[in-house]
Design goal:
- By secondary structure, the chain is an alpha+beta fold.
- It folds into two domains: 217 residues, Helix Hairpins; 86 residues, no CATH class.
- It is 79% helix and 11% strand.
- Strands 1, 2, 3 and 4 form a four-stranded antiparallel β-sheet that branches.
- Belongs to the intermediate filament family.
- GO terms for molecular function: structural constituent of cytoskeleton.
- Keywords: Coiled coil, Intermediate filament, Methylation.
- It holds the Pfam family Filament.
- This is Glial fibrillary acidic protein.
Length: 326
């Protein structure tokens, strides 16, 4: 039984070690799950920030588009205004030329008025200078406005291009983060499933270990009871043997006393001591009987019986059941 008990203890130690190892693995899985959840939260925050930035850039791109459209409308309006001013200028120049031509005719007809011709020439020169100056100023203003509008359109186009580029970058980052998020979700679900399986397996193994331990305790108690029963039977056998040895010794002494009594001469019968035996049985525990042998001594004096001496009690143990044959 000692070897079996050692084996059972060894199995119990192994089960305890496996249980501790499973608990450590469960703690590690819980820690990994917490790390993955934190990483998932961080990635979610980054995704939200990227979405907010993308919305802001989209708004800026829309504003830049609106500004470009406004500048295009302004450019078209300025071009129309320039065409209108050029047309007006051309009409004014043509009218001035017609006036100068008419004045030229009047001057040719009136040869006697040289001062008027000089005045007309001076007026013509002034009008031509004014027209040239106005045309030059209009062209310069047109060029300046067109350059400003071109620069603004270029800047807006560059801003729009940068906004589109950043929007594409954020879109790619969002797609990448979405893929990472899905991957992390899959990993999280897998880890949670593994943790549930580990917990269920640990619960099943713990229940199995508890059942095995209870069964081992029952077997140990059964072995203890059986050992106690064997010890009790052995003690009973020892008691029976002791009782038999005492009884045999008593009968041997009785037989020796009878032999001695037979060898005594007849004339000494007056001093003969007669022994009587009486058996008193009493029940004992555990199915055994306790018997006392009472020996009475009777002295014969002048043919009369003298008072008997005190009885001698010898305890004997007899089994209540028949003894096995040896």
């Amino acid at each position: 039984y000692q070897a079996e008990l050692r084996e059972l203890r060894l199995r119990l130690d192994q089960l305890t070690a496996n249980s501790a190892r499973l608990e450590v693995e469960r703690d590690n899985l819980a820690q990994d799950l917490g790390t993955v959840r934190q990483k998932l939260q961080d990635e979610t925050n980054l995704r939200l920030e990227a979405e907010n930035n993308l919305a802001a850039y989209r708004q800026e791109a829309d504003e830049a588009t609106l500004a470009r459209l406004d500048l295009e409308r302004k450019t078209e309006s300025l071009e129309e205004e320039i065409r209108f001013l050029r047309k007006i200028h051309e009409e004014e120049v043509r009218e001035l030329q017609e006036q100068l031509a008419r004045q030229q005719v009047h001057v040719e007809l009136d040869m006697a008025k040289p001062d008027l011709t000089a005045a007309l020439k001076e007026i013509r020169t002034q009008y031509e200078a004014m027209a040239s100056s106005n045309m030059h100023e209009a062209e310069e203003w047109y060029r300046s406005k067109f350059a400003d509008l071109t620069d603004a359109a270029a800047r807006n186009a560059e801003l729009l291009r940068q906004a589109k580029h950043e929007a594409n970058d954020y879109r790619r980052q969002l797609q990448s983060l979405t893929c990472d998020l899905e991957s992390l979700r899959g990993t999280n679900e897998s880890l949670e499933r593994q943790m549930r399986e580990q917990e269920e397996r640990h619960a099943r193994e713990a229940a199995s270990y508890q059942e095995a331990l209870a069964r081992l305790e029952e077997e140990g108690q059964s072995l203890k009871d059986e050992m106690a029963r064997h010890l009790q039977e052995y003690q009973d056998l020892l008691n029976v043997k002791l009782a038999l040895d005492i009884e045999i010794a008593t009968y041997r002494k009785l037989l020796e006393g009878e032999e001695n009594r037979i060898t005594i001469p007849v004339q000494t019968f007056s001093n003969l001591q007669i022994r009587e035996t009486s058996l008193d049985t009493k029940s004992v525990s555990e199915g055994h009987l306790k018997r006392n042998i009472v020996v009475k001594t009777v002295e014969m004096r002048d043919g009369e019986a003298a008072p008997a001496s005190e009885p001698l009690g010898l305890p004997l143990l007899y089994p209540s059941k028949p003894l096995p044959h040896v």
